Amino acid sequence: MQKDFWRDLFRPENKKTGNNILLALLIGVLLLVLGKTFFPTDEKAAEVGQKEEIAQVHGSNDREMEVRMSEILSKIQGAGEVEVMLTFSASTESVVAHEEKTEETRSQEGGKTSENTRKETTVVMTEDGKGNTSPLVLTENSPQVEGVVIVAQGGDNAVVCKALNNAAQALLDVPAHKIAILKMK
Hints:
This protein has helices at residues 2-9, 15-38, 42-73, 158-172; strands spanning 82-88, 93-96, 98-109, 112-123, 125-127, 133-135, 137-141, 145-152, 179-183. The protein has 185 residues and is α+β, with helices and mostly antiparallel strands. It has 3 domains: 1-39; 40-92 and 142-185, 2-Layer Sandwich (GMP Synthetase, Chain A, domain 3); 95-135, no CATH class. The strands form 4 sheets. It has a 3-stranded mixed sheet with strand order 1-8-9, covered by helices on one side. A two-stranded antiparallel sheet has the order 2-7. A two-stranded antiparallel ribbon has the order 3-4. The chain starts with a helix and ends with a strand.
């Protein structure tokens, strides 16, 4: 009976029904493929979570740096309450390990010698206990401070401004022209 059903399904007079079933199967396969793309598995979700966590850590480090600097600068005589804002040139940059393989070949034909050199560079990967692989990070370069804004209650006093400017230069290794000191309202 099943053979008859399938045979009858693909007869010329039932062509529309057969095409609809094939179309439904194709749509199902397409949804499965797209489902894995748009709805990541636990591994991909964990990987995305780790990247977001790293970004939050670096963001909190930046904010923490501003708070610590505000606390230190507010202790300067005459500065009063101080708020600090830092701007950075770029985000944290990671330098990964590379493995370089060099292959040299020499061939001699007739009286001529030819030499060929081929270099192949690959990224060194590490695997954690869960089987996830990631590149081996050699160093992480922190972003460079691009500019500093200091708002202080004593920002209208030239002596206090000079002291705040010197402290910011010493702490952040930023030139004086990239430091703005303003009076707090």
